[in-house]
Amino acid sequence: MEAARKVLADDACAPFDVPALRDALGKAKQDAEQTIDTVTVDTVRSQGFDAAAKEKAAALLRSFRDYIELNKDEIAALQILYSRPFRQRLTE
Question: What is the reported pTM?
Fold first, then answer.
């Protein structure tokens, strides 16, 4: 039993005996790591109203309202379809 365990463990570890693979795994781990700074204290440099952000939000809202207005028939149909219980919905 012990000999079989050793053979299986050696077979499972064999791919990691390749230095290039170990280097690639180490580099992948390093690339994926993220350092989170919990020590440094942030300071506010400025505060105030951003007119560009307000205009961007208003433009997004106008765009969404236009989409709703142009597609209200399809949206109403989907609301009717999805308001049915799951078992009564249309299927393929």
Answer: 0.39
Q: How far is CA 72 from the centre of its chain?
A: 30
The rounded distance, in Å, linking the Cα atoms of 10 and 8 is: 5
Question: Is residue 83 over pLDDT 90?
Answer: no
Cα–Cα distance between 10 and 3 in angstroms, integer? 11
Distance of CA 74 to the CA centre of its chain: 29
pLDDT in tens, 29-78: 999 999 888 899 989 988 888 889 999 999 999 999 999 888 888 888 88
- With vertex at residue 16, the alpha carbon angle to CA 11 and CA 20, rounded to the nearest 5 degrees, is 145
Q: Where are the alpha helices (DSSP H) in the chain?
A: 2-13, 19-32, 51-70, 72-83
**What's the token pair of residue 57?**
């939000």
